[in-house]
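hey team, just a heads up i'm posting the complex here instead of the shared drive bc the drive is being weird again. everything in one block, sequence lines first with there labels, then the predicted structure for the whole assembly after. its two chains so it's a bit long, scroll down
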Amino acid sequence: MELRNRVALITGGSQGIGEAIARKFAGAGAKCAIVASSDANKAGKIAKEIKRGARAYAANVTRPAEVKRLVERVIADFGRIDILVNAAGVFYPTPAGETKTADMNRMIDINLKGTWNVINAVVPHMKARGAGNIINMASVAGQVAIPAYPIYCATKAGIIMMTKSLATELSRSGIHVNAIAPGNTETPMNEDIRTDPALRPVLDFMAMLTPSGRTYSTAEEMANVALFLASPVTGRPMYGAIITADEGFAAGLFVAG
Amino acid sequence: MRFADKVVLVTGGSQGIGEAICRRFAAEGAIAAVVASGDRAKAQGVADAIIADGGRAEAFVCDVSDVGQIEKLVADVLASLGRIDVLVNSAGVFYPTRIGETDEDMFDRMCDINLKGCFFACDAVAQHMIERGEGGRIINLGSGAGVSGRSNYIVYSATKAGVIHMTRSLGVALAPHGINVNAIAPGNTATPMNENVRTEPEYAEIRETIARNTPSRRLFADASEIAGAALFLASDDANAMYGATMLMDEGSTAGY
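-- predicted structure starts here --
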């Protein structure tokens, strides 16, 4: 029970990796504030299942004022925020010459600015307490490029460097900032790639580039890494680290023979 | 008991981070093969302490800069303990190699132990793991100095960058065999290897440099904390990890 009574705010907590983290953290004793992007009922369903006083919220992370209200409500409800997990994010292709400005903006607004907005709102509270633990969800696509996803790659690379810069700034205040770079992980965000026959070439491409032969990790495995970072024992020396958990995707090329 | 009856071979296991790794694995049920570089009594001391705590351990000796000794070590461990489930390459040396003050022997010795020794230990143990067909775990010790440069530890930082990058290639090479190869990159960690830096007056300037470059203000992590990452990487929690490096350095290499 390494997170006993710790309060964790988890954006993107109503599905995928965020949901798995909420379940894992609750299992380790944490009280979770689960944030869905718009549908509080989705978050509510998870909160009801994991118990331990978990509560559901909805907030659009692209709107700073809404995020600020969210943080105030969570602090009012739980008394404090010990852990922030930024798992809200979107994933879709943005091929050059074929991408609407609105789609490009939406991805940057959610993945990069959204992560920043929540951090910016939570940090004054953590600074005042002299403690905190922030975990950002980056991606292996922020370390190695994949074709047709330039904006996704750029937002995730942005999160990686934002994580490192924040670590240098906030470790002085006792706040850990680290990131996880998952590879392909089985979540609703990529269900289409895993199941839609039209996207079979994308799936084959991912399989070809996955040394372990396991094209998709599980969301729970990413939650295991998050728990390691969030734990005051195992995560203690960790600031500005990017933990790649990607079936070997980013490590290099598997050359047969 | 996450590691009940697993055989964990730890080079550099007789002191510092390697010793902490041996103790923590043994505390969770593993059989620790504790390897000292030359002084068997040191490895035996760690093994005896583990046994006194109710754990299981056996002492070995191996100079990892000698490939013949690595082959003999692996044969000895297999003869005595039957198999190797986890290899931790913690053997390493750390000394300054400044411009104008580094001779060829200093360069060769550091490369032979830190880089060549790590490769051939992986090579020997991986062949056993492949033959056995049940996968395995290999954990290499990189360093924060392998992520960003060190003006006075030029060769050390190069060998550790080499270990981190070799881990990527090994991760890819051995992933199809179910062998997870990953690394830990500790920052300054309190061990006998840097006792002089932590305590002696002539190292005051280095301590000030470390203080300036440690955002968390905790100048030295505990060896047991680094061991925590080794246990994590050897556990099922790290099933998705191949070729990765866990930086545990109090923020020192994230930037300035």
